[in-house]
Amino acid sequence: MNSEQDFLSAYDPRAYAPVAVTVDVVALTVRDGELQVLLIERGEHPFAGRYALPGGFVRDEPLETAARRELAEETELDRVHLEQLGTFGDPGRDPRMRVVSVAYLAFAPSMPDPASGGDAASAAWVPVAQARELAFDHDAILAAGLERVRAKLEYTPLATAFVGPEFTIAELRAVYAAVWGEDLHAGNFHRKVLSVPGFVESTGTTTERGGERGGPKPRLYRAGDARLLHPALLRPAREADIR
Amino acid sequence: MNSEQDFLSAYDPRAYAPVAVTVDVVALTVRDGELQVLLIERGEHPFAGRYALPGGFVRDEPLETAARRELAEETELDRVHLEQLGTFGDPGRDPRMRVVSVAYLAFAPSMPDPASGGDAASAAWVPVAQARELAFDHDAILAAGLERVRAKLEYTPLATAFVGPEFTIAELRAVYAAVWGEDLHAGNFHRKVLSVPGFVESTGTTTERGGERGGPKPRLYRAGDARLLHPALLRPAREADIR
DNA sequence: TTGAGATTAACTCGCTCTGAGAAGAACTAT
DNA sequence: ATAGTTCTTCTCAGAGCGAGTTAATCTCAA
């Protein structure tokens, strides 16, 4: 933005090759004990018939507004936690033209199938393990989203975004187990969640019934006011992650 | 990207208002015990005379290549650590037109003043505490970069990117002190750095001379092969950060 | 109705990690 | 030489964590 040419070209963008800006959304939820992602089956070329992340062109609006709009077009997701994930703009990632896509990450409690309600009949929640060979570079975007959510569970109260407004410790533990793909020690998890200041706060009530397979009525909690977990809730270190 | 209109417009981008894509770089270094950022004094409107982050338009190249190119235009920074920070695209952030800017974060060891060598006579390293009222929304971009670097020092070996290929534990500690803005307990820091697997590895040598103000010749270390610090090197929790 | 099995919630125990402080050795500047 | 600084190691008490145990509670099936 320093040379005169740059300055002038800012007033005549057609001096440069046209670039399109889109948003793509990695919307995650935990259903049936699995981490699932919202995908769209593409009807048109390129990548017709392949699954893709929901997304579309950015209009005269902030980027996050565009992400929220695209998400609303596919589901009735409301009050979801939304954060920017990263931007993917390699030349050639879209065969038609240069497309720079700003990816967003959304977290939602378990919802009914979008196919029944949304106007996009081709939208579906898919377990992340089965979400492969997506259109464009969406495999890489999804992988970045999964890495992000796994890391953020450690040091933020993000898990509460995957459950309803009132939840049990066991429901919270199920979120961690689904996202991390490994079971957690129930007793230690319980102690840890209650000991981190501001993670959860008690409602003073319990569920109406015990668990489906027995056990006492668990107590209900709300999300607390913490933005960071101190100390963090660390998952066991894996050598492969460290090196 | 589902309606026919979207599909067609992808072949005729002028159906939408033109959008420019730029990169901006938050280049950080530690000089004189302070965290400093590379800034450019703008010569032209808008924001003439104000400082701004180095940046420019993206050409037919990957985004990271554009960031590296813009950085090279202002300094002789070589082999710097570069990572994507975030994308800033609010309408109105550039008064001329819609500009979506992908911000990158760069970390470099202490370097001579860019004014002496670079072709941009107006480039300068500025202590981050004095980098205020920048052009466009660069205050917000810089703030995001500072938050990122402070957090990443905790759980990655990023501090080694701020020092030379061989360094002392005290130099590493000075990086932490400069970035976090608080002194660290020398003994505990020493124990911690050496105990985290893969953070640093010994060269078996020491410096030629002791410190400027006395003390024995410190041992020299290289960066290790760890990508993550386990256990992390946490800074003391501040209540303001948590809530 | 009763028993088997599962779950919640709380506790114990040993180990590791951390913060704070201390101390000896090594080195520079005066 | 002396004073002051720094490097490096050590100690000690407290906090946190993984693993295991236990009592109470509840569902489901016999």
What is the CATH superfamily of the largest domain in chain A?
Answer: Nucleoside Triphosphate Pyrophosphohydrolase
Gross morphology of chain A is: elongated
Strand content of chain A is 25-35%
Structural class of the secondary elements of chain A?
A: alpha+beta
CATH fold field value of the largest domain in chain A:
Nucleoside Triphosphate Pyrophosphohydrolase
Low-pLDDT stretches of chain A: 1-9
Helices and strands of chain A, in order, run as HEEEEHEEHEHHHEEH
Key phrases:
homodimer; 243 residues; Arc Repressor Mutant, subunit A; seven-stranded mixed β-sheet; two-stranded antiparallel ribbon; 7 helices; 27% helix; DNA-binding
Written description of the protein model:
Two copies of one chain form a homodimer. Chain A has about 240 residues and is an alpha+beta fold. Chain A has two domains: about 15-140, Nucleoside Triphosphate Pyrophosphohydrolase, CATH 3.90.79.10; about 155-240, Orthogonal Bundle (Arc Repressor Mutant, subunit A), CATH 1.10.10. The first copy, chain A, is built from seven helices and nine strands, in the order αββββαββαβαααββα. Chain A has helices at about 5-10, 65-75, 115, 140-155, 170-180, 185-195, 240, and strands spanning about 20-30, 35-40, 50, 55, 80-90, 100-110, 125, 200-205, 220-225. In chain A, strands 1, 2, 3, 4, 5, 6 and 7 form a seven-stranded mixed β-sheet that branches. The longest helix of chain A has 18 residues, at about 140-155. The first copy, chain A, is elongated and about 60 Å long. Residues about 1-10 of chain A have low confidence and may be disordered. At the A-B interface, α1, β1, β4, β5 and β6 of A face α1, β1, β4, β5 and β6 of B. Chain A binds a DNA duplex (30 and 30 nucleotides) through α6.
